[in-house]
Description:
Layout: E1 11-14, E2 27-34, E3 37-40, E4 46-51, H1 52-58, E5 70-73, E6 77-86, E7 96-97, E8 103-105, H2 108-116, E9 123-132, H3 136-142, E10 146-149, H4 153-157, H5 164-171
Parallel strand pairs: 5-9
Antiparallel strand pairs: 1-2, 1-10, 2-3, 3-9, 4-5, 6-8, 6-9, 7-8
Amino acid sequence: MSEAQYLTGRILLAMPGMGDPNFDHAVIPIYVHEDAGAFGVGIGALREGISFHDVLHELDIEPGVAPDCEVHHGGPVEPGRGFVLHSADWRDESTLDGGPLGALSSSAAVLRAIAGGTGPGRWLLALGYAGWGEGQLDEEMHRHGWYAADGREAILFDTPWHARWTATWQAEGVDPSLLVGQTGTA
């Protein structure tokens, strides 16, 4: 893996005091990190007032056997665009391999498969994404805005959304209550 792809398959955690309220306690699995930029989908906050069945109805997909569940706030870019973070047991032409994060799909086909009972075994839906231009995320990493944690499917699928930031830090062996919001230089 080249240095430019180091963050693919990892989970970004916003550092305390980052300074951008859009990313307060953000938990963002990264699916693309290359020279041209980076792309991830937030899973640490919910979209208020919208459910999975609402999204299906908006797309004229009958919910079928799909449970109704929350929809995550994936990020500030294209907030109406949907992404399904899911286990690697389902894929189509839109699917990105997420390594330890499972997979990510953005087609309506995955929603139809979930509704029909033939989709991935584990999944969650997010609207919007977080994106960085060439060198932007690398710069933010150097300014101590983000921490790159190991990618763990259990954080995505077994941890409630409101506990993911703390649980990811704890999985890294860090007590997040001891983190400070400022760094200095010597």
